[in-house]
Amino acid sequence: MSSRTKIVVLRMKEIIYTAIFIGLGILLVMLLFIMFRPGKGDDAPVSADQVLYIPGVYSASLKLGSQEVNVEVAVDADRITSISMVSLSDSVATMYPLVQPSLQNLTDQICQTQSTQNLTYPEESRYTSQVLLQAIEQALGKAAAK
């Protein structure tokens, strides 16, 4: 009885290296498949999850006569939530009666459209609205995600 027994000696180090290289090869093939698969929707519209602003409350200073008031803009990651004026004393409100209604008009339009473009304002408060709009845009510039 002659038996031809072959003894194969494998070192554990070689088995481990082979398993690692096979695993990396499979991972690479899966990654390439995921990245370059057809029909993944390259022409998809911009998602609403895109971050436009850094959430928080941002302010811009506005000088009315000898007093300074701050226009505060509160933003979430993707939308403007509110616009308000702080440090508006009674004397400033009396001296500049168009400030509050103009700010309310702009706030309503900006929060609804989420843009400072193509806003309308009454002819009698045109300049007041433009000054307020500049302060709002300055605060939004601070909030913009880079």
What does this entry look like structurally?
There is one protein chain. By secondary structure, this protein is of the alpha+beta class. It has a domain at 56-143: Alpha-Beta Complex (Sufe protein. Chain: A), CATH 3.90.1010. The protein has 4 helices and 3 strands. It has a 3-stranded antiparallel beta sheet with strand order 1-2-3, with helices on one face. The N and C termini lie far apart (82 Å).
CATH architecture of the domain at 56-143: Alpha-Beta Complex
Please report the distance between the alpha carbons of the first and last residues. 82 Å
Number of strands: 3
CATH fold-level name of the domain at 56-143: Sufe protein. Chain: A
- CATH top-level class of the domain at 56-143: Alpha Beta
Strand portion: 15-25%
Order of helices and strands: HEEEHHH
The whole-angstrom Rg is 32 Å
Shape: rod-shaped
Uncertain segments are none
Largest sheet: 3 strands, antiparallel
Structural class by sheet pairing and helices:
alpha+beta
Assembly annotation: single chain
Give the integer mean of the pLDDT values: 85
Share of helix among residues? 40-55%
Q: Write out the strand line-up for the largest beta sheet, numbering strands in chain order.
A: 1-2-3
Number of helices: 4
Summarize this entry quickly.
With 146 residues, this protein is of the alpha+beta class. It is 44% helix and 17% strand.
